[in-house]
Design a protein that fits this description.
By secondary structure, the protein is mostly helical. The chain has helices at residues 2-16, 23-36, 61-66, 71-74, 77-104, 109-119, 121-124, 133-148, 155-170, 179-184, 191-213, 215-223, 232-244, 247-258, 268-289, 298-319, 323-345, 359-369, 381-386, 395-401, 423-426, 442-451, 489-492, and strands spanning 374-377, 430-435, 452-457, 471-475.
């Protein structure tokens, strides 16, 4: 109860905060804007236009989902976050409930799963952001749901295949779920239809996306993400680190389901879809964890799928007096408490720091708005939008296009990015540039230091240093409109030198 009492208010505050909680939220806003302006979601970066139109490395379903909502909604980070998290979470609970009723004949597992979700929420944190993770979790649970449907001809097995294609269209790693029907075919040959439907629909989807966006789709969706090498050692380390906290919680459920104590006289064949879905989620987590320089967000999905199994055992422990089930339920409950105590001890709750108010963002928007010319806030396109400036590509997305430039200036990939992309900076069409401290791009920094005056470090600004760490550059001729809150940015931030004349 303590975990729920802590996590729920923080979750609500994070969802309600109309500001950037993590850099991917700025890119979500940006890609939604590309679709709003009817730019293609995938295009080559062989022209200066890439400064304003950089592509997504994800498949398009998540962004197309957001574009189904009014523009005012997707221009609001709080609304974006709510749309990305709340509907998938609620629908996941419904699908868990429906699936487990069919597979095991048990009620209220979906509710228990939701409570476990919130109890262990501090470990996940990023699943409530405006990014595709919650929808990816929902798509995997949808695979479980289709596997639980009643066998009535071929329709069920076609739906299983199509549901795997939906996972793939959210994130490319969903392709790994194609192994589920292959293993299920050991129990039921008709699952070969699911495998064929999944493979065929994925191939057809790739062909249609290739036709719609051209070769740029393949380039962004399958070439650029591979610039992060896979490390087996790192994957093993992260698996140990992130599953170690809940391994006690998961041992008892799996031991129960592998024995003869299955609810309502079910067999291993009945629960195979559940176990295979959980295994597939673990496989996704393992692959994601070994991607050097990548994210381990798929571990969130694994933990949430595993919580379904935990909820089943808790449900049985609450309804039965069978000594084996009661002991298993006790072990699981102690495991949950132990897991949460470890989370507390390891200070994992820093991921759930209550969102501060919007003062920081308003301050930065005002600063950008008062600059007469155009501005590039390299990591926060939402700031450009709110300040009435032209929206430009987030810097980290440009870095993914020209990956080598983020690490070594000599490792330039001409096929990734035309150097003319920096023309707006080189020719000083941009009046001011906000550069993050944690994403150095040597070529861009060299241009800025040559053409611009270094103004300030945002980390020295008391009101916004905790939120928008970075540097600010502007060209020598820039001047700022006089405002009561921003009387000449140079004086405000201690830069007293007069602007140099070109």
């Amino acid at each position: 109860m303590y975990a729920l009492a802590f996590a729920l208010p923080v979750l609500i505050r994070r969802l309600a905060f109309n500001g950037v909680l993590e850099h991917s939220e700025a890119t979500t806003f940006y890609f939604s804007g590309l679709l709003r302006e009817q730019y293609p979601l995938y295009q080559y970066t062989h022209s200066p236009a890439a400064f304003y139109q950089t592509s997504s490395i994800y498949n398009p379903l998540y962004h197309l989902y957001l574009r189904a909502f009014p523009e005012a909604w997707i221009a609001n980070l709080s609304a974006l976050r709510i749309l990305s998290f709340v509907p998938p979470f609620l629908l996941s609970a419904v699908l868990v409930e429906a699936s487990i009723r069919r597979i095991l004949g048990l009620n209220w597992v979906g509710l228990l799963w939701s409570l476990l979700f919130l109890a262990l929420y501090p470990m996940y944190a990023w699943i409530d952001l405006s990014r595709p993770d919650a929808i990816f979790m929902l798509s995997i649970i949808f695979v479980l749901f289709t596997c639980s449907l009643k066998d009535s001809g071929f329709l069920k097995f076609i739906l299983v295949g199509l549901s795997i294609c939906v996972c793939f269209l959210v994130k490319q790693t969903g392709l790994l779920l194609i192994g589920i029907p292959l293993v299920m075919a050991v129990y039921e040959r008709k699952y070969l239809i699911s495998f064929a439907a999944a493979l065929g629909s994925i191939i057809l989807s790739v062909a249609l996306l290739q036709w719609a966006y051209g070769p740029a789709y393949w380039h962004w969706a399958f070439t650029i993400p591979r610039t992060d090498p896979y490390s087996l050692n790192q994957s093993i380390l992260l698996v140990a680190q992130y599953t170690g906290d809940v391994v006690i919680s998961l041992l008892a459920p799996f031991l129960l389901l592998s024995q003869k104590h299955l609810p309502n006289n079910r067999t291993l064949r009945d629960i195979a879809p559940l176990l295979l879905t959980c295994g597939a989620a673990f496989g996704l987590a393992f692959v994601s964890g070994g991607k050097c320089g990548g994210w381990i967000a798929d571990f969130v999905i694994y933990m949430e799928i595993s919580a379904i199994v935990l909820a089943i055992l808790l449900r049985e422990a609450l309804r039965s007096l069978h000594i084996n089930i009661l002991l298993s339920g006790l072990a699981v409950s102690l495991g949950v408490l132990f897991s949460i105590s470890i989370l507390e001890a390891r200070d994992m709750r820093h991921n759930l720091k209550p969102a501060r108010n919007e003062t920081d963002q308003i301050e930065l928007v005002q600063m950008v708005h008062h600059i007469k010319g155009d501005v590039w806030t390299t990591t926060w396109p939402i700031i450009d939008y709110l300040a009435g400036k032209t929206i430009k590509s987030p810097l980290q997305i440009i870095c993914q296009a020209w990956f080598g430039v983020c690490n070594t200036p000599s490792n330039i990939r001409a096929d990734y990015l035309d150097p003319k992309i920096w023309n707006p900076i080189t020719e000083k069409h941009i009046e001011a540039v906000f550069m993050p401290d944690n994403l150095a791009v040597p070529t861009l920094e060299a241009i800025l230091k040559q053409k611009y005056i270094y103004c300030l470090s945002l980390k020295n600004h008391l009101k916004i240093k905790y939120f928008y760490g970075g540097q600010m550059f502007w060209p020598s001729e820039v001047w700022v409109a006089s405002q009561t809150t921003c009387d000449d940015l140079r004086a405000t931030f201690g830069y007293a030198a007069q602007p140099a004349q070109n």
